[in-house]
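Tokens for chain A. Residues wanted.
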């Protein structure tokens, strides 16, 4: 073969070698870029020889092949679950800023050191499940969830041989404002009910409540709480203290303050709480055209409660509780000349249960005594039962059981008051994804001390409701309820209600 042929073959070999080097350099540059963006490439940066190879295609193809093989092996051994993250140290050694990840579920993790854990199979894990509820409105570092409802209702009241019926529009506004802080928490809840009669006769029953609670995380073992609230309601016509010949019962304003601290001492948990309540009563218009002032019922009540519990397990904590309280009326004597200020003492033993979403709450029993300043008023002694249990027998079904014992003062001459035992339950069941049914029932026993001229009473209540969520923002509601008050002496009073309405949420 002549020189021309040899020269041609040599030139062909050189072109081929040069193309091979260029191809190897391109592959290496691509592998380095992909490793920086995916973050699945372990914890080491590409070597200096690899960078030089990317910059100069005339280096030895053996070095290029070795670097590419090493890079590919590192990629192959990286965990699949971390494929959507990056290594800030590796990218810093390349002199580049970390690139944005392409997985939307992990897009907020770019540049973070404490990355979220992935699932076992490497699939993206959602951090928040969409339960179909309204998402709320972000207000700075708070989340606001308001709801506005309106309904048409019919109410029928029967007592002895009398019967009254009224139709009314009820408008409700409620909402929650909750902080989104890394430490501490401030939550504000409020609701209001406004009624307007459009037919018939009967008392309108407005109601307003607003409560604020601030939790302070002082340390890992110590938590403090501060609370404040206000409430308004109209006294029920079936209440023992209601005015018999009133055109409309008195409005009651309640002001609430509270403070407490809780600390864990290993297996022992202790808490100390103080509360202050003030109740004021409005005047009552009588059917004879006169007005009755109820300022002699205005009072302040303060209570201090201490509790100590022992953690048998995280799910079971028995406790002992003791409290002392003092009630002071604005007027030393009421309109009948009785001093109704009193001191109360109470003790209780119970257990806290926390089995997750299946069963959670507390229940306890104890003893309470109330001593009045007026010697003519008999002391009230009562065995008490209190508690709240939430039970979920299956997904979509929730049962709430409540027990409460309260001592209520009286306005009758010579009567100190009565003990009210209340038992109520509510069952909610999700019939479908968008339909929720409710069933509620309760009983209240009002027991007067022995020797009292007043008679005991029993109040039974039952109700049912249905909520159809047309969307996460709009729901159709329907409710029906029945309440019967039966005194030991006298006639019973029945109140039946039925209503249908709409609820708008955000």
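Reply:
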């Amino acid at each position: 073969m002549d020189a021309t042929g040899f020269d041609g073959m040599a030139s062909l070999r050189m072109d081929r070698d040069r193309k091979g080097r260029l191809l190897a350099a391109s592959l290496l540059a691509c592998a380095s870029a992909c490793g920086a963006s995916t973050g699945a490439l372990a914890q080491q940066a590409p070597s200096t020889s690899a960078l030089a190879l990317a910059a100069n295609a005339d280096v030895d193809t053996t070095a290029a092949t070795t670097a590419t093989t090493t890079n590919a092996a590192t990629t192959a051994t990286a965990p699949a679950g971390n494929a959507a993250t990056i290594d800030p140290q590796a990218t810093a050694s390349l002199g580049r800023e970390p690139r944005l990840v392409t997985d939307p579920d992990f897009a907020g993790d770019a540049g973070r050191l404490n990355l979220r854990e992935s699932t076992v199979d490497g699939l993206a894990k959602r951090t928040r499940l969409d339960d179909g509820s309204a998402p709320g409105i972000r207000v700075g570092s708070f989340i606001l969830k308001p709801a506005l409802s309106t309904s048409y209702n019919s109410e029928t009241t029967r007592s002895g041989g009398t019967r009254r019926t009224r139709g009314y529009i009820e408008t409700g506004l409620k909402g929650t404002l909750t902080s989104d802080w890394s430490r501490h928490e401030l939550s504000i809840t409020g609701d209001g009910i406004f009624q307007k009669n459009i037919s018939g006769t009967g008392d309108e029953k407005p109601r307003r409540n607003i409560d604020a609670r601030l939790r302070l995380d002082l340390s890992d073992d110590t938590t403090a709480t501060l609370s404040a609230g206000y409430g308004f309601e109209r006294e029920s016509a079936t209440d023992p203290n209601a005015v018999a010949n009133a055109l409309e019962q008195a409005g009651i304003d309640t002001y609430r303050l509270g403070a407490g601290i809780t600390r864990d001492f290993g297996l022992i948990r202790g808490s100390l709480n103080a509360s202050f309540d003030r109740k004021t009563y409005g005047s009552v218009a009588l059917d004879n055209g006169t007005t009755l002032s109820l300022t002699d019922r205005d009072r302040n009540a303060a209570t201090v409660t201490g509790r100590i519990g022992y953690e048998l397990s995280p799910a079971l904590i028995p406790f002992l509780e003791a409290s002392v309280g003092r009630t002071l009326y604005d007027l030393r004597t009421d309109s009948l000349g009785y001093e109704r200020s009193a001191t109360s003492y109470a003790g209780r033993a119970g257990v806290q249960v926390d089995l997750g979403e299946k069963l959670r709450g507390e229940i306890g029993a104890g003893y309470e005594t109330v001593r009045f300043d007026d010697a003519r008023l008999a002391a009230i002694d009562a065995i008490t039962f209190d508690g709240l249990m939430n039970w979920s027998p299956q997904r979509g079904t929730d049962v709430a059981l409540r027990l409460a014992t309260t001592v209520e003062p009286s306005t009758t001459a010579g009567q100190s008051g009565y003990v009210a035992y209340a038992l109520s339950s509510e069952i909610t069941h999700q019939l479908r994804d968008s339909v929720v049914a409710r069933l509620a029932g309760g009983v209240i026993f009002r027991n007067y001390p022995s020797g009292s001229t007043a008679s005991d009473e029993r109040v039974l209540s039952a109700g049912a409701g249905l909520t159809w969520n047309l969307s996460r923002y709009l729901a159709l509601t329907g409710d029906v309820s029945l309440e019967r008050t039966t005194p030991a002496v006298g006639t019973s009073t029945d109140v039946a209600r039925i209503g249908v309405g709409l609820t708008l949420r955000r």
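Residues 250 and 282 are 5 Å apart (CA to CA). The chain has four helices and 21 strands.
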